[in-house]
Automatic annotation (TrEMBL):
Localisation: Cell membrane
Gene Ontology terms, MF aspect: ATP binding
UniProt topology in membrane: Peripheral membrane protein
Name of the protein: ABC transporter ATP-binding protein
Domain (ABC transporter): residue spans on this chain: 4-225
Species assigned in the record: Solibacillus faecavium
Keywords noted in UniProt: ATP-binding, Cell membrane, Membrane, Nucleotide-binding, Transport
Keyword Cell division (UniProt): no
Amino acid sequence: KTKIKVHNIDFSYDDKTKILNNIQLEVKEGEFLVFMGPSGCGKSTLLRMIAGLEPFSHGDIEINEKSVRQTHPDCGVVFQDYSLFPWLTAQSNVMLALKQRNKKMPKKELAHIAEQYLTLVNLGHAIKKYPGQMSGGMKQRAAIARALSFGSDLLLMDEPFGALDPVTRIKLQDLIVQISAEQKRTVVFVTHDVDEAIYLADRIIIFAPGKNGAVTKSIEVPVQK
Ligand code: ADP
Ligand code: ADP
């Protein structure tokens, strides 16, 4: 089970324009937390900081009591640029993630499980395609399959469904709700879509920009899942 604590995060890319202003927040074990707020107010930046991908000098972020400065966080991520390896097929991209945790798993089994995850996101027909042969929505789904297959308790997702048609989007929303509830994974999820946020979230964090950077406010979403 994974919990996150964000303490006193002040952040600026250039030491002039402040992006984040003294952010304090906690993500509880197994919680589905959604970040919302206007474009450009620092949601992706904070998500990348939690993933250990954005260096910072003020404040701290702890995942299970360990600072992301010291310990590379163990998390499945879906970012907007998909970050698939272009020289590997969809299946091999997923196999690579699986292999990181299952170092001794035979290749045949890796291939089989990768195919199952890709089928789960409706890409069973495209496992041999390379990223360059896939549409935006297909790449997004491959990146989601890879993040899920990685098997970490913690999923960090930045508008993972933005490029999907409405039918696929609803299907994957249901899949992610089911996976996070059954497997008690902790999820931090960025979206612009209010309906999506309310459908998915246990709690929503609103980012509100100001001249000293964005501050955050938390709202509980009382839903029965
Ligand atoms: P959001 O996810 O809320 O849309 P971002 O975290 O992507 O916001 O961006 C916050 C601000 O930081 C924006 O003004 C953006 O232009 C700027 N920004 C994002 N990434 C970088 C970067 N690598 N270097 C400099 N500025 C950046
Ligand atoms: P998506 O909702 O996945 O973005 P699209 O409407 O972009 O779907 O594409 C529909 C179908 O067209 C895909 O499932 C895929 O089979 C095919 N397709 C789209 N773009 C490409 C591409 N660049 N290369 C190969 N096939 C593509």
